[in-house]
Amino acid sequence: MSQLQAEPAWLWDAMCSNIEKELFMNKVKFQDVEIYYELQGESGEPVFFLNGIAMSVSHWNPLISQLKKKYTIVLHDFRDQLLSEKTDIPYSLETHADDLEHLMEKLDFESAHIVGTSYGSEVGMTFALKYPHRCKSLTIIDGVSELDSVLETAVDSWKSAALVDPRVFYRTLIPWNYSPAYLKKNLAALRKREEKIAQLPIDFFQGFARLCDAFLEINLTSIIHKIQCPVLILIGELDILKHKAFSDIMAREIPHSRLIVIPDAGHAVVIEKPAETAGQVESFIN
Questions:
Q1: What is the pTM of this model?
Q2: At the topology level of CATH, where does 3-285 sit?
Q3: What is the 3-class SS of the chain, one letter each residue?
Q4: How far is CA 267 from CA 66, 70, 114, in A?
Q5: Residue ranges of the domains in the chain?
Q6: Distances (CA, A) of 184 to 7, 62, 148, 175, 241
Q7: Helix 202-215 crosses helix 166-177 at what angle (to 10 degrees)?
Q8: What is the dihedral of CA 222, 91, 144, 151, to 10 degrees?
Q9: Pairing of strands 46-50, 72-76
Q10: One pLDDT digit (tens) per residue for the chain, 286 residues
Q11: List of residues 6+ apart from 43 with CB closer than 8 A
Q12: Fewest Cβ atoms closer than 10 Å to its Cβ: which of 42, 162, 166, 218?
């Protein structure tokens, strides 16, 4: 079975099975919120991978399988994501950046390479701006520095669906995240994940809605020229959610940046093309 065909079998299953890790969690507390994290590899330079908005740490496993042989890989769920604490305390992308800095300090890393996808890439930019001395490099995968009306409307619809019906929520995500070829081969398997989504606790969906609120306040374009570290911008060729026009803006505004398009991939390029994405990240870090 090809990787493309196999991925849906672990995609949401891995996310849901993470609930079983509750008894074995590594957590760090910051501002009275516990953040879940994992260390993999534990040799070489540290590389922190930052989740997309509906992701959990397990979603990175196919991408980091080779990288962890060379680097110390650090994964964590943002506050309000599956394995971290849920909170009613108002927060922003800057709050996530503060959480990341605290985690880096607790793990005794002076600085690290930062790799973020979608929501995580926006947290990564915020982190690079606020903590430039801790950011060796930044990889932005399918990210944005501002909103347009389509993106804003799509995220608002996800938020509304998350608070009403888990299955409807999941179905609203699918067409925005995957390429036509991926959907054609995997739609039936993706549909089967709906039962897994329905089993997630209600606070997951409430937390997702708060994550959406934090994202919808994004307004970074006017300040990203201040990012000091080298920056790689990766974009899936067929991303209709955070399309190439957004990446072009960042490539124009961020000094020391390079833009690469990954062919035949939608927004969830880290899921559709993990090997290609990992190769670009490794080449850039090297």
A1: 0.92
A2: Rossmann fold (3.40.50)
A3: CCHHHHHHHHHHHHHHHHHHHHHHCEEEEECCEEEEEEEECCCCCEEEEECCCCCCHHHHHHHHHHHCCCCEEEEECCCCCCCCCCCCCCCCHHHHHHHHHHHHHHCCCCCEEEEEECHHHHHHHHHHHHCHHHEEEEEEECCCCCCCHHHHHHHHHHHHHHCCCHHHHHHHHHHHHCCHHHHHHHHHHHHHCHHHHHCCCHHHHHHHHHHHHHHCCCCCCCCHHHCCCCEEEEEECCCCCCCHHHHHHHHHHCCCEEEEEECCCCCCHHHHCHHHHHHHHHHHHC
A4: 22, 27, 19
A5: 3-285
A6: 14, 21, 28, 11, 18
A7: 40
A8: -120
A9: parallel
A10: 333 333 443 344 445 544 444 434 699 998 889 999 999 997 899 999 999 999 999 999 999 999 999 999 999 999 999 999 999 889 999 999 999 999 999 999 999 999 999 999 999 999 999 999 999 999 999 999 999 999 999 999 999 999 999 999 999 999 999 999 999 999 888 888 888 888 999 999 999 999 999 999 999 999 999 999 999 999 999 999 999 999 999 999 999 999 999 999 999 999 999 999 999 999 999 9
A11: 70, 71, 72
A12: 42
The C-alpha angle with vertex 199 and arms to 265 and 28, in degrees rounded to 5, equals 80
**Structure tokens given for 98:** 């503060």
Do you know the residue count of the chain? 286
Of 48, 9, 251, give the one whose Cα is nearest residue 137.
48
The residue written with tokens 């740490």 in the block is 57
